Amino acid sequence: MNRTLFDKIWDRHVAGTFSDGRALIAIDRHVVQETTSWHAFDALRDRGLTVRHPELTWSVIDHSIATRPGRTADSYPPTRDMILAMRRHCAEFGLRLYDIDDARQGIVHVISPELGIAQPGCTLVCADSHTATSGGLGAWAWGIGTTQVLHVLATQMLVLRKPRTMRVAFTGRLGRGVYAKDMILSLIGRYGTAAGTGHIVEYAGPAISGLPVEGRLTVCNMSVEFGARAGLIAADDTTFEYLSGRPFAPAGAGWDAAVADWRGLPSDDGAQYDTELEIDCTAIAPRVTWGNSPQDLIAIDQPIPHPDSFADVDRRAMAERALTYMDLVPGRPIEGTKIDFAFIGSCTNGRLSDLREAASVARGRKVARDVTALVVPGSAAVKREAEAEGLDRVFLAAGFEWRESACSMCVAANGDIVPPGKRSISTTNRNFEGRQGPRSRTHLASPAMVAAAAVTGHITDVRRLLDGEAG
Amino acid sequence: MDKFTVLRGKAVPMMRANINTDDIISAQAMAGKVERIGERLFTGWRFDLNGDKRPEFILNTPRYEGARILVGGINFGCGSSREAAVWALTDYGIRCVIAPSYGEIFHDNSYQNGLLPIVLDEPLVRRIAAAIESAAVPEMIIDLTRCRIVLPDGAEMPFAIPDERRAALLVGMDELDVLLGRMPDLDAFQRADRVARPWVWPDAT
């Protein structure tokens, strides 16, 4: 029988079955972050259990730490206890921890690929919905809850029902000023935030094969905003080149055996998916959100929609509410909307290529008056690499702040917040009400688009600035 | 896990689509201790920026305050994996959500904490919401022993949930115990896996 990539990964991780169709799935990689693990460690201790596989468990502090240079666990008092608890738990249960000052520290979904923890064909879980990011390497990676963290710590297994499969083909070629972020936003905008529910989504097609690994990670990252728990991209030579030599990637003869195995993972010809969709990338213009759901998307050259334009009664009600919350007038162009904050970072767009794209726009320009612009590298390694090629100086010269790596203003759990009523454009993944701070207003876009807005002071079609550069 | 058999209580209609886990419990509201997290449920909607209750929010009205059942719109609980969203609901007293669809991680987390997430077709959910709104007393019964919802007017509506989920809820069984009972399966799997995929094991490469 012809199997999909996901079928193959599923089959090789079934450690047992139940008569009702559920399966025991073996977990290869467990990554633990501080904000969603505390109660799992407490429960583990209460039950008198230990961590079954510390060698398959990686821990990091990323969500709740401050980002200003010289930060410590005390820099943001509301989360101090959480950070200290994480240190205690990792020491108590013998887990490796990439602490605040560690050279390997970073956002969990940035360091999982970067350190070679995530590998093609492996199962990787973390109590964080954007764990799907690592699917860009061909790993089956998905977010779990805190109780399931306990399950994996104690047993290295989860009880699951096999999800359905979906294939999304990205055809055509990306135009100038259009990036991986715009690809996944286009999918979410066209089909909605629940279209992927119950599915593992495999992204394929020439526009995906043509993406470097970091772009693939961005696409898979927002699978959850599409409703899917995981996204997958078949590993290929681009993947192997990326992984080779990374700290936890196989080495020597082990590497050759692994690559030989990984080459057999892509979907067989004729493999059947439950659902198939297609997006033509040639038609994609830079995207920006206008509302409070990631599906509230328009192209930069489109007007803010009228609620009446939605046939669906739910969408209409959500649009009315969102336009009020976001203080936007339907029918007006989105371009030109004044912003107060610009944020570049997160597991969606906090990698080196993202910073390069933003820097190419920021270079030689100045952040607009009254705009606060932050660049928060996705990991300590991204920060070092960016500094090695001078990107920090580009940003600082333009008036951006250059911070230490953390989740920062994406989840606003570390004191980096957008104040009430202020408008932010952000390279992150969620534009929910209050996501970047109580009553904050968020527009999602690509790093280049965010940099463009930072330097003009309003939402701007980045292609104008790129054209200006070319001219 | 607390068991779930028959639940009787106020039901609140919140039919907005895509109520996400940030709405249910914001990142700022989940920092620190989990104790009394129900007080921070729907923080951005229940309270103004000074922390005062917003009287217009539905759970702040005497009719619906203290609800045990929430009737929601499509994709309820989408967004972040934070189990604190479920803890905030259960700590407030809500033990059952009825919605046309859910965010997947929230749906799983609900079962792990004895919160029953009933899935019904959208027209049925709307009918329930309308029945609650028009009732003199917005009270319903969720009977998991019979898989029946008893509407305020006494009319009954069946619902379905997977057998294993129902069985676990009825007795309050933790899934961890199921897993711990199957450790020999993992031992056998791993013996073979170390041979088949040695590179997966960091101490073996």
> Helix coverage percent of residues of chain B?
25-40%
Distance N terminus to C terminus of chain B?
A: 40 Å
Please indicate the percent range of residues of chain B in DSSP E strands (runs of 2 or more). Answer: 15-25%
What's the CATH H-level superfamily name of the largest domain in chain A?
Aconitase, domain 3
Question: What is the level 1 CATH name of the largest domain in chain A?
Answer: Alpha Beta
- Oligomer, anyone? heterodimer
Radius of gyration of chain A: 21 Å
CATH topology of the largest domain in chain A: Aconitase, domain 3
Give the strand tally of chain A. Answer: 19
The domain count of chain A comes to 2
Average the pLDDT over all residues of chain B and give the rounded result.
95
**CATH architecture classification of chain B:** Alpha-Beta Barrel
Overall mean confidence score, pLDDT of chain A: 97
The strand order across the widest sheet of chain B is 4-3-2-1-5-6-7
CATH architecture of the largest domain in chain A: 2-Layer Sandwich
- Kindly report the greatest chain-chain contact and the residue count on each side: A-B, 76 and 60 residues
- CATH superfamily descriptor of chain B: Aconitase, domain 4
Number of strands of chain B: 7
Give an overview of the whole structure:
The complex is a heterodimer of chains A (471) and B (205). Chain A has 471 residues and is an alpha/beta fold. Chain A has 2 domains: 271 residues, Aconitase, domain 3 (2-Layer Sandwich); 186 residues, Aconitase, domain 3 (2-Layer Sandwich). In chain A, 33% of the residues lie in helices and 17% in strands. Chain A contains 17 helices and 19 strands. In chain A, strand 4, helix 3 and strand 5 form a beta-alpha-beta unit. In chain A, helix 13 packs across helix 15. The longest helix of chain A is centred in the first third of the chain and has 14 residues. Chain B has 205 residues and is α/β, with parallel strands linked by helices. Chain B has one domain: Aconitase, domain 4 (Alpha-Beta Barrel), CATH 3.20.19. Helix content of chain B is 33%, strand content 16%. Chain B has a 7-stranded mixed beta sheet with strand order 4-3-2-1-5-6-7. In chain B, strand 3, helix 4 and strand 4 form a beta-alpha-beta unit. Chain B is globular. Classes of the chains: A alpha/beta (471), B alpha/beta (205). At the A-B interface, helix 5, strand 8, helix 10 and helix 11 of A face helix 4, helix 7 and helix 8 of B.
